[in-house]
Amino acid sequence: MRGPTMRLMRTALIPIASLALAACSNASSSGGPPGDASTAADRPESADSSGPSGQPITAPAEQWTWVPFANALCGNGAATGIGINLTTRSRRVLVYLEGGGGCWSDLTCYTLKTAAHFTTGYSETDFATESTDPHFLALTDGFFDRSSAANPFADYSYVFVPYCTGDLHAGDNVVPYPSGTAHHVGFANMTSYLARLVPTFPAAERVILAGSSAGGFGALYNWWQTQQAFGAVRVNLIDDSGTFMPPDIESKGSGESQLRAQWDLAATLPPGCADCATRLDALYGFFAQQAPDHRGALLSYVQDSVLPGFFQISTSDFASGLTEELNTYFVPAANLHSFTNPGTGHVLWFVPSLMTGNVTVAQFLTEMVTDDANWMSVN
To answer: Which helix (H) or strand (E) holds 80?
Structure first.
């Protein structure tokens, strides 16, 4: 099977059997005048990829274009980049972070290879495959389909951030493992991307930072630096299937200590989030407190088929942890809502028609991004 769920979960399935060994402004998106970012989309016929930090990216309008970055690296030390799909339809931007497992040791990174593209890198060739995959970025009626009337992001410019650092897009550390030197630098890569994305969209009206699985964790983790980079532009958050567990559940499994050390999360956690030093799920509360006029969403299956294996907990423990997270952070916060489905699966972003009750994922997200006053959690 080749599809988004398999793509995002394939590396996460390995630890289920073996990881114990490793242990330890609020205007509408339509009708506004195009900003300089959109103007840039009209200029060249190919992406301007060689510019230094701070130089706007230019690319053909409304087609996926690969933009290499010399200062963004995969786990194997090879340079990588991002995908861009610009438009003049609006001044809104959707930044999507890819998923694909995680690793934090010689065993997980090089033997079990539990993180996608970590040892092989992610290049223009990989992007050419994924950007034309009908089950992924080229999904009909998906959230990157500009022809879909039901797509709330149809008029947005798109940025695709690939995943090849094994650190949930959260690290900034180079680690000498026995089998090779590992570059857990997903957070640092995002810093490099933002240095050019901000000047690419100088008149941005709204930014949506989204991601699935490892990319969902990454979207939550990178929200603070993305908001700081874009300044007064409102950055909303969509975390799809990247659900951090509360300490009482997380402690039943493999724990966070090793990945915190190997990825050097102490250096990348947002300043001011004191609770994040001991519990990564505190990032939800941090968002709610720091951005009360923004909106944040969590999408999750109650019976997630991948994350229990990642955390080394049972499916019932994951369901309990999810409920605890919602009650702790989402229920009290007016700016945080969730869409959960009682079924079994992993990743909802690529199933826009998935329904809970009489509401689909697409409808839930449409109400979110259009600032609908009736937006609420669907559980």
So the answer is: strand 79-85
Q: What is the rounded CA–CA span in Å between residue 186 and residue 258?
A: 17
What are the CA-CA distances from residue 65 to residues 58, 89, 145, 317, 365 (Å)?
A: 10, 18, 15, 42, 26
- Residue carrying the six token digits 């510019």: 51
Position 71, amino acid: N
Which residue ranges form the domains of the chain, and what is each CATH number?
Answer: 4-369 (3.40.50.1820)
Contact indicator for 300, 231 with CB cutoff of 8 Å: no
Q: How far is CA 162 from the centre of its chain?
A: 9
Whole-structure pTM value: 0.90
- CB 358, CB 319: distance < 8 Å: no
In 3D, which of 5, 6, 9 has the Cα closest to residue 306?
9
Separation CA 275–CA 292 (nearest Å): 18
One-letter amino acid for residue 27 of the chain: A
pLDDT in tens, 27-36: 333 333 223 3
First to last CA, the chain: 29
β-pairing, 180-184 vs 359-360, is unpaired
Query: What's the pLDDT tens digit per position in 306-319?
Result: 999 999 999 999 99
Q: Is 371 exposed, middle or buried (0-12, 13-18, 19+ CB in 10 A)?
A: middle
